[in-house]
Design brief:
- Helices cover 34% and strands 25% of the residues.
- The chain has 231 residues and is an alpha/beta fold.
- Strands 3-2-1-4-5-6 form a 6-stranded parallel sheet, with helices on both faces. A 5-stranded antiparallel sheet has the order 7-8-11-9-10, with helices on one face.
- Helix 2 crosses helix 8 and helix 7 crosses helix 8.
- It starts with a strand and ends with a helix.
- Keywords: Ion transport, NAD, Potassium, Potassium transport, Transport.
- This is Trk system potassium uptake protein TrkA.
Length: 231
């Protein structure tokens, strides 16, 4: 398995971890400064997380940088991403480094100073929307430009605690609303309070973007929630 170190635990990191975990080809270690975020990632994904500064040599050594095949810096500060990648490349001889650039004006300097691949967070988010892969299996249908609302398409996992409950009795996060339900056989249903959600349903929801992750965990990947609770 390829060993991957990710520095930074933001939303891009969460998305990347989900993709890599689903492929079962990578051993992932995350380095994150915030303790609560570190614990959340460890509990959700069951991977190794080092709570510390990704620009610190000792911290990266504890994370196993000397054995890493790929090093990815995703913090919100370009200077930290550059420093982390330089340490990985020069100190630990990591073959391939990747950095997120938050300010596109810094792309050139990161490339000149040895980062192997650079990507813009804005470009990545746009690509995620275009490909409808914001969260695996859950897709973005429409993003409202002037507010934080979005329309999403959510497949209902049979293990979700929503399966078997009516729309009225289920406690949706925030002001999330189901606007259409399609059955496994293709039947489309206009939602009413007494409509019972079933395995195989696809729910079209209007929700706040900040609730994407909670909806994804509750409806699409409840196994991750249960794993976290068991730990």
């Amino acid at each position: 398995m390829k060993k991957v170190i990710i520095v930074g635990g933001d939303k891009v990191a969460y998305h990347l971890i989900r993709i890599l975990e689903s492929e079962h080809k990578y051993e992932i270690t995350v380095v994150e400064t915030r303790l609560d975020t570190s614990q959340r990632i460890a509990n959700t994904y069951g991977i190794k997380v080092i709570n510390g500064d990704g620009t610190n040599v000792d911290v990266l050594e504890r994370a196993g940088a000397a054995d890493a095949d790929v090093f990815i810096a995703l913090t919100g500060k370009d200077e930290n991403n550059l420093i982390a990648c330089q340490i990985a490349k020069l100190k630990f001889k990591v073959d391939y480094t990747i950095a997120k650039v938050n300010n596109p004006k810094n792309s050139y300097i990161l490339k000149v100073l040895g980062v192997d691949q650079i990507f813009s967070a804005t470009d990545m988010i746009a690509q995620m929307i275009d490909q409808e892969v914001a969260y695996s299996e859950m897709s973005l249908v429409y993003n409202f430009e002037k507010n934080t609302k979005a329309i999403i398409k959510v497949p209902l996992n049979s293990a979700s605690d929503a399966a078997g409950k009516s729309l009225a009795e289920y406690d949706f996060v925030g002001d999330t609303r189901v606007v259409l339900v399609t059955r496994e056989d293709g039947e489309a249903l206009i939602p009413t309070g007494d409509l019972v959600m079933q395995n195989g349903d696809t729910l079209i929801m209007v929700c706040d973007q900040k609730n994407f992750e909670e909806i994804w965990l509750n409806f699409v990947r409840p196994d991750l929630l249960k794993k976290s609770d068991e730990e």
